[in-house]
Design a protein that fits this description.
Growth Hormone, Chain: A; 19 helices
Length: 436
């Protein structure tokens, strides 16, 4: 009843976007806060940065691996059930962390438990919502929801850093538990599966367009279908270009910078709260960058956009090492430039995935592409920690990430070569996305 009253005032697709925006913001924030805890864990338990970085890597691997299966699970059980279940799992996993005393417990709780839970409500969910609820403005919606994901990775850091410094890391973890529980009623009350559930067509759809059937999605098997889709997609060259460039995207964001910027700043006598505040600046400008990227993806060739984004990211990372030893205004400039580019790559990558594989398979295929993103992040998180432990600094980690970003930019130009920027002629692969 409430949903239909709201849909009479504004297209309900925007209500769904708002609910998913809050959920992605919160879930990404929960997962990313472990970067603040590296030094406190080192002080209390004696775990070095390499050991805690392994836990971060496990988290990122679990976070990425669950994405394609979560996309299929959403298609079968519905977005609302998956979102509520994932938020509840985050709350349980975070609360249990306060009682840990061994490194393996950190690996398990922040790895499979929180990693799988937050991965179930991550960027692939934005692709599903954009294609279900919007006939036009899909790029803009993808950009907005991507901004929520990326900003959530950063927005909570100053608060968590401040609470951790003054009240201990366990208080911060309990705050995460409370916030996860607080989002559940919002999802349960307002989230809907399809436009037809509230009696509307997808936003921007012509009047003569047939509306999708209402009711629960009883689509693919959430365990076998993603594997069959992967087997089919793996035979397409463009899949490997998409996955490879997004692997580098994860390497240069979640892995190298999100996980290690704060400890790298600490190495140069920059307080953790100050470093966390710079991460928030990145998050603030990410909202502009990701939303603007979505707007541009609706209008320009996404391959050219990816080239520009990756080259700019590589340039900013190459400058990070000298900026850490320079005046603070230099780091502020880095935060602005890097923030505009933080996840601007997502809308054009989603657009190219849909272009190559079609609307019906885009959610699951992009889930695998996103999995590659998080594997790149996990590799970089572990490697940067190992390099810091052996070399004593992050010079090789950050400079190498910059070089990889430039290579990814060049590779992006070859995706779907010979095809227009926005044609509706996907590559023909088997109809595994429907479980047939």
């Amino acid at each position: 009843m409430l949903a239909r009253r709201l849909s009479a005032r504004v297209h309900y697709g925007w209500i769904v976007v708002a609910v998913v925006f809050v959920t992605l913001l919160a879930a990404a924030g929960f997962r990313s806060t472990i970067g603040v805890f590296i030094v406190p864990f080192q002080d209390e338990f004696g775990w070095d940065r390499g050991q805690v970085s392994t836990a971060i890597a496990v988290n990122l691997v679990c976070y990425g691996l669950v994405a394609p299966f979560a996309a299929a699970l959403v298609m079968r059980l519905g977005t609302r059930r998956v979102m509520v279940g994932a938020l509840a799992a985050v709350a349980v996993g975070a609360a249990a962390t306060t009682g840990m005393s061994a490194l393996w417990q950190l690996d398990v709780l922040w790895g499979p438990v929180i990693g799988f839970a937050t991965g179930a409500i991550s960027i692939p969910l934005s692709a599903i919502v954009a294609t279900r609820w919007f006939h036009t403005r899909r790029g803009l919606v993808t950009g907005l929801l991507t901004a929520a994901f990326a900003t959530g990775n950063l927005a909570f850091l100053p608060l968590i850093a401040w609470i951790t410094r003054d009240h201990g890391w366990r208080t911060s973890v309990l705050l995460i538990t409370a916030l996860a529980l607080a989002v559940i009623p919002l999802v349960a009350l307002l989230m809907r599966e399809h436009p037809a559930d509230v009696g509307v067509r997808p936003f921007g759809a012509p009047d003569d367009a047939s509306a999708p059937a209402a009711g629960p999605a009883l689509g693919p098997n959430p365990f076998t279908t993603p594997l069959r889709v992967l087997a089919d997609a793996a035979r397409v060259r463009d899949f490997w270009l998409l996955a490879g460039t997004f692997f580098v995207c994860g390497w240069t964001t979640n892995g190298a910078v999100q996980s290690h910027f704060i400890p790298a700043a600490y190495d140069h006598h920059i307080p953790e709260v100050t470093a966390a505040s710079l991460m928030v600046v990145i998050g603030m400008f990410d909202i502009i960058g990701a939303t603007g990227s979505g707007w541009m993806t609706d209008r320009f060739d996404p391959r050219h956009l990816l080239f520009v984004y990756y080259v700019l990211r590589g340039t900013s990372l190459a400058l990070l090492v000298p900026l850490l030893t320079g005046p603070r205004w230099g780091l502020l400039g880095f935060a602005v430039l890097y923030g505009l580019d933080w996840v601007a790559t997502v809308p054009p990558t989603v657009a190219l995935t849909t272009l190559v594989f079609g609307r019906e398979r885009a959610g699951i295929v992009f889930g695998w592409v996103f999995c590659s993103h998080m594997l790149g992040g996990a590799t970089a998180a572990w490697l940067a920690g190992a390099l810091r432990a052996s070399l004593g600094d992050y010079v090789v980690a950050f400079t190498g990430a910059g070089v990889l970003a430039v290579v990814a930019g060049v590779a992006s130009l070859a995706i779907a070569r010979g095809r227009g920027a926005h044609p509706a002629h996907p590559v023909a692969i088997e109809a595994t996305a429907t479980g047939t």
